[in-house]
Give the backbone structure.
Amino acid sequence: MSAAITTRALTKKFGDHTAVDALDLRVPRGVVYGFLGPNGSGKSTTMKMLLGLTRPTSGEIEVLGEPLTERSRARLLPSIGSMIESPPGYGHLTGAENMRIVADMLGLTSRQVDRALATVRLTDHRHKLVRTYSLGMKQRLGIAMALARDPSLLILDEPTNGLDPSGIEEIRTLLVHLAAQGITVMVSSHLLDEIDKMADVLGILSAGRMIFQGTRDELFRHSTPDLVIETPDPAAALATGVTATPVRGGIRISGVDRDGTARIVHRLAVAGVPIHEVRRVRHTLEDVFMDLTGRGGLL
C-alpha cells in the first residue's frame, strides 16, 4: 500500500534530551494506525512534527506523497484533520457556533459542517452549549472539527482519554468507520485493548525510538505464548529447577519454544511430578507491549 505518512531519520532534540530519535515511520493509506508507547516516549512530539507544529531537529517528513516543508505546509494542511492533547471548543457556545468558527476560519461550507456533525452523531445536540456536553460528546465535537475540511488524513492524540466504556466504544466505532471510507487515521492511545480492536497497523515507540512497526500478526509472530503446566504439586515442579511462576493449579513458564517444552515435561516426568495438562496461553497486546517497552528491545 502507498503511504499517507513517511518519515526518514526524524529526530527532535530539546537541549540535551532526544525526544524522538531517528524515527522511520510508515503509515499506509486507508488504515487505522495505532501509535503506542509509554508516557514520554515521543508520541505527541512526533504528531506535532507531522502537523508542522514543531520543527524537527533533523530528518525528513513526507505527507500524502509530498515533502512537508514550510512552503508546502499551507497546501497540505487542508487535507489533514487533527486533534492533539485535548478537544477544542468554547464551553459558552453551542456546538453549532463552535463549528461555525471553524468554518469561517477554513472557508468551509455549511454542507461540510452538517456532514461532519452527522458523522460523529452530534446533529441533535448542535444547539446545546458545549459546557453541557459529556466528555465523549466533546471528543466527538473535536473530531467533527477535524473532519469538517474533508481530510484524507486524520491525526488524533489520545481521542478516548477520560471516556467511559460506552464513549470509548463510540470513538472506536467511528474511527474504524472513517478508515473504511478511505480516510487514513493515525491514533495514539494508552488503552492498548482499544488499539488492539481498531488498528490495522501498529507502531510502538520506546524512549523516542521505533521498536516495532507492522501488523498485529507480525507483532505476535515475535512473541512466544506462555506455557502452563497443570500439576497438583507445583512446589515439586519448582524443586526440579524449572524457572517458572506458581499459578493456580500449576506453574507458568515464559519464552519456551517447542523443544524447550519437551525438555521441561521430560524433566518433570522423570522427577515424578504429576502432570494433568500442558497448554499454551496466548499473550495479549498488553503483554507484548510491556515486554517490548520494558526491555527496550527491537523487532
In short: The radius of gyration is 24 Å. The mean pLDDT is 88.
